[in-house]
Amino acid sequence: KLLECNTGEVLIADGKLYYVDLKNNNQLICTDLNGKNGQVICDKSVLSFVVCGDALLFEDTSLTLYLKGNDSSVITKLCSSVERYFLNGEIIIESGNNIFSIAPDSGKAVKLNNFTDDECHLVGAKQGSAYIDSAGVLYEVDEAEHTRITDNTGVSDFVYQGPDGKLYRLSYGYNSTSGMTAKIETVDTEEQS
After folding, report:
1. Distance CA 166, CA 189 (A)
2. Cβ contact 46:26 at 8 Å
3. How far is residue 81's CA from residue 123's CA, in Å, rounded to a whole number?
4. CB 161 within 8 A of CB 167
5. CA-CA distance, 189 to 172, in Å (whole number)?
6. Is 4 exposed, middle or buried (0-12, 13-18, 19+ CB in 10 A)?
7. pTM recorded for the entire structure
8. Each residue of 8-24: pLDDT tens digit?
9. If you write DSSP's letter for every residue of 11-45 in order, what string do you get?
10. Residue 8: Cβ within 10 Å count
């Protein structure tokens, strides 16, 4: 038995085990892989986290996103009211109707979207760019341009690029017979046709 506790999210990175301890106010804990030498990394109530290089990115239960260097006790508040976030070398954040990128080393924020509709959502990221769904139309965006990938083919909950180079869309739904459903399909683009 490695650990006996009530855990939320669990991640192994750089030879360490990280987990959210649900029994102790969702504290973020780091241990050796054998479960020993545990230490509280963050005593905030953590909802989700990711280890990115030598830093930790975590969102607390008040939907505030923080960055903490592994070798530092300094915790930097990045953004409040976070709806989604991804990593693509930079931290891509959706907050309200704004989607922006933050460079972890400089903390400089750059707005990525100029959409004005309330149906604009961050749905994925890859190295150097992010995917935004705007009322069912999928765009790839970076600091310089917005490239329309699809026409209105349905709202995406998550978009990712597979090892085959193709884009895939994950969409969730609900029906009274089977409950929650998930559908994965290839995103039809001119480049993939």
Report:
1. 9
2. yes
3. 17
4. yes
5. 21
6. exposed
7. 0.77
8. 888 888 888 899 999 88
9. EEETTEEEEEEGGGTTEEEEEETTS-S-EEEE-S-
10. 14
